[in-house]
Amino acid sequence: MGCLALNASFEPLTIVPPHRAVRLVLDGKAEILEEEGSRRFRSERQVVPCPSVIRLVRYVHVPYRFRGQVTNTFLFARDDYTCQYCGKYRSALRGRQFLTRDHIVPLSRGGANSWENVVTSCSACNNRKADRLPHEAGLTLLTEPVEPNYVHLVWVVRTVTDPQAKYIRMFYGEAALDEVAGRR
Ligand SMILES: [Zn+2]
Question: Is pLDDT of 14 > 80?
């Protein structure tokens, strides 16, 4: 289970691995708001509980690329686990097919690894497309990819625990969570 990292302003930023969260705490860069169970991390001089929510001591202006970092977990969730070319849902994939990240404009042709240039694609469609643009491969995108709302994704992929959800709710309000909870 990851640790929810909040900005000094309490804005939820991201989920980080516990050991990274502990590092920030040991370095005096973050404080622990919520602990998880009885697990402890030991350094040479300190014993630190396993954090489930930390808050950065100083406000950081988060660079856009960090905020919008593309991960397959969030990409597949954004696209509802559906190939954006053939429309097959994850569970409808046969044999050795699986979901992949497709760059609409291929990296080899100067495409970026940005939310606007990546879509979920089944391996069959991705192989067919190869280093081409969709229309060159006779493929059409089902939706226009956009940068997703981080909080919505976190909720959809259910990687937050109740104590973590509390802070997301605190910052974004109840309505944001309700709206997404009703989606599934
Ligand atoms: Zn497909």
Answer: no
Distance 157 CA to ligand 1 centre (A): 22
Distance 150 CA to ligand 1 centre (A): 25
Burial of 10-29, coded b for 16+ CB within 10 Å and e otherwise, reads: ebbbbbbebeebbbbbeeee
Output the pTM of the full model: 0.56
- CB atoms within 5 A of ion ligand 1 belong to 83, 85-86, 122, 125
Ligand 1 centroid to residue 5 C-alpha, Å: 35
Q: What is the pLDDT of residues 82-135, one digit of tens each?
A: 999 999 999 999 889 999 999 999 999 999 999 999 999 999 999 999 999 999
Asked whether 128 and 139 are in contact (CB, 8 A), the reply is yes
84 CA to centre of ligand 1 in angstroms: 7
Please count the structural domains in the chain: 2
Residue 133 shares a structural domain with residue 100 = yes
Give burial (CB, 10 Å; 0-12/13-18/19+) of 86: middle
Mean pLDDT of the chain: 84
Write out pLDDT tens, residues 40-90: 888 888 888 999 999 999 988 765 444 557 888 888 988 989 999 999 999
Residue 147 resides in a domain: no
Give the domain extent around 177. 3-64+158-181
